[in-house]
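Known limitations

Structure tokens in this collection are predictions and should be treated as such. Users comparing against experimental data should check residue numbering before alignment. To illustrate the layout, the record for CTLH domain-containing protein is reproduced below. The input appears on top and the generated tokens appear beneath it.
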Amino acid sequence: MESTHVNWETLDSLIIDFARSENLLEDSSSSSPPPSPSSSPSSSSSSSYRSRLLIHQIRRSIESGDIESALNFIKSHVPAVLDDHRILFRLHKQKFIELLRRGTKRDRDLAIECARGSLAPCALDAYPEAYEEFKHVLLALIYHEKDQMSPVANEWSEKQRFDLAGLMASILRAFLQAYDPLFSMTLRYLISIHKVYCLRQGVSSPISDLTERLLFDDRDPPATPQESLFEAPPFDEVDIQALAHAVEVTRQGAIDSLRFAKGDLFQAFQNELCRRRLDVSGLDHLVHEYCMYRGIVDSATKPPSAMNLANSSSRDCSVNLDSVNCKLSDGETSVSNVDAICVQEANAESASMQVTDVEMRFASEVSSSHEDCSTSDANHSQSCSRRLRRRCHSDGRRRKRWRGRIDRSELTCDVPSSETSSKGLMTSDKGSSDCKLGEEQASSYSSSLENVNIYDDNKLEVVLEMKELANKGLAAEVVEEVNALDPDFFHQNPILYFQLKQVEFLNLVNGGDLAMALKVASTHLGPLAASNRALMKPLKETLLAVLNSNEAAAKAFPLSALATSLQVAIGRRLGIEEPQLMKVMRVTLHTHNEWFKLQMCKDRFEELLKIDRLKEVDAPMEGDGTPKLHSDNCTHGSSQTTICSTSKLEDGSSPSQVSSSEYVCDEGAILKVMEFLALPRADAIHLLMQNNGNAETVIQQIFS
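Generated tokens:
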């Protein structure tokens, strides 16, 4: 698994998109006016973010029992959802229970009024069983909440709140197309496949501590279609089976999901994937750690402790709720203005401290330059001094600043109750909110900090400089700087040294200095290849650049991959562990490969989630040193035959997984066995291979 290659440039792009989509970053654009609707990427991201905030608020209102506020939010922003009387009936039924739960005479009268004026009329045409459910829930008027033996004990259960909240989140997410950022969905998918693979193969997971904490087992209830479930599914069985096995739902669940998405397989896939719950705070910290390590954000901004976050939440909640909770439909300015208010003080403090931080760091780095260089040689010291000066005078503010999810504190504020919102959501009192960080959220936040690396700024800056030089193709400078830092480094990492000398050789060839290029090859590349026979082939391919210098760049090791390998190796040498997210991606991408080898088919959703790009590390290098990526125009076709052969699997596969010779399995036969026997694809293929591909024979054997 450690040898699994990952395109870290693609992951960087996904991570940056995730952080921006979730408003986790501060940069120069944060103070600029909100984008106009014509600016599609940012405008779409901003709209999706606002929609997710709205869904979060509605979910929280229902979970806290404030159904009236949830109804007000829905009526104000997505009234079309309530055209479905099934949804309206369930909301009014829960509102009836919550009013009774309060226990006062006035609330009891309000509950009876709700039943008479809203619940009963809605029960008449919601769905066939609705009126019976209405009569049943009226028993709550005479049976006490604490009576566990009552016929309405289930109606009194607070679990009903959370089920309804999850259902509304599923419905609103699909209705508003407010899906989670792509990286969040990709990680859910990879982790779920990893768990299934480890369970089915009986192997232990090296990242179980992270995966169990990040991805919860529970899911939001699915959004069900209005059409009759007794209708024959008008969908391709290939799509049904692909969806069912990708998101671990039953065949009927996949059919319902496809029907709800009007036959759009990829929309149905996203709807189902977003039902899986993630530990948001834990994910944020893994992302923050990765961003610091990769130089995406300023490493000086440490993640706040749970206590600091709680304090920040209390301070931020002093913002007028009129501007926080009530203006999501007023256009682009609402959330952006709130965000600006929420972080204004933090930005001012950060800006005032940044210069001081750089000055102090410069002083400490110069005073400890000999320690950083690990050598007493005068030339090495001069080289390190130049490096430190260049580091300290570089513009650190070009990196983004991390602010975290503190601005979500407005969503942990109690929304106006039905007693204080008779005039709608626009008339809440300024001091009426009870702002606090929930104990469960604070606990999760603290636990997610336990294994997050807090990097030493000085060492990390050295590593990031080496990475930047390598990314620019300045191989000779990298070798010089690393030797000044640690003369023994390349003796212990000869492959990295070979790759850097490859880049230096190709740079000289492209510059027309063939004599110097051949000298580099004879002095460095030749001896390295002689001592490691595995390097002989890349050496020969590198020397071909002398014959055709125009193709030199295309033969080079991708600079981004080289830069990351160098960063990891130097970081470990300096005691800087790579972020946990890198380990998660390596392991889950490895198990993704292994899982679909067992399934003997291609993952139909890997292009949608950019998993194919995360695996692209050997693409030819373009002029800027970035591996070439495919275009966004993806084809999602499915093959109608599956070739089963030992050549399709790597060493370590079970002999029972394939036949001794190549065999072509008909896709229709595979699907028939999967459907009738409810088997995973791999098991269906193995049974067909044992019965000459005859699906009827397989089914008869099972039922005989």
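For this record: Residues 457-573 form one domain. The radius of gyration is 30 Å. Please report discrepancies through the issue tracker.
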